[in-house]
């Protein structure tokens, strides 16, 4: 698979919460940061979202906003209005005037990601993805938004199931949707043909004995230029990125509990189970078996384990 598909596969995203958000008149609410990726789709009307250190962003009908890691933010009918602190909720919410038909309608909520690798994988994504309706309308993304809008406004049997599946498809489409400039992390690196070749090679052959020089050759660049561009795009050097990715793959295998340590070591490029265990302990602060018992359904060695929830905490946007 390609790097983005690999990351999505390890994240195992699912629509955890989705709820209608309606409002009328003047209104403003704000939220503290919460441990869940938040999203908002504007179905009717408009609103303004503001994050610390950023200019307010206008959201219009058909716009999609995704926050892979949800920071503090405010949502209001106009920029600069006083905002009331509220807590994320899983049920429908109404802001502003309580009587009369709403002049603003949105679908908001959160996605659940697999917990063990979420911090690493989310760090490779932009902190904010905004797809305006004007840019996404003529694409498959726009078609998905239309389908989701129709489903939300309907009363068809199976509505909740269809809504969840459409949201999951929308998440993947949003992550791979082609934007012009301004991208950071993996999405930005994948738009760079040279970096994309190196990333593709690493992900297609994880256990290979990669070096910076060999990856630079794949990218068609000098060693120094490649290392500098890679570090600027992804915030770490290519060998460090590879090491982190190998650990992410290893953690996923440990969570499944269906492979021996020796097999995992072989698949991610370590000479032996002991070499892998040493590297894993150094990075994770515990042996692979302990990690599997604490976080997964089982471990490669036959010892009892403590079940733990595989998903990050739920929250909602709106």
TrEMBL record:
Signal peptide feature range: none
Domain of life: Bacteria
InterPro entries reported in the protein's UniProt record: AraC_lig, AraC_XylS_family_regulators, Homeodomain-like_sf, HTH_AraC, HTH_AraC-typ_CS
Region (Disordered), start-end ranges: 298-318
Ranges for domain HTH araC/xylS-type: 196-294
Transcription regulation among keywords: yes
SMART domains per record: HTH_ARAC
Name the record gives this protein: AraC-family transcriptional regulator
Keywords attached to this entry: DNA-binding, Transcription, Transcription regulation
Annotated source species: Sphingobium indicum (strain DSM 16413 / CCM 7287 / MTCC 6362 / UT26 / NBRC 101211 / UT26S)
MF (Gene Ontology): DNA-binding transcription factor activity; sequence-specific DNA binding
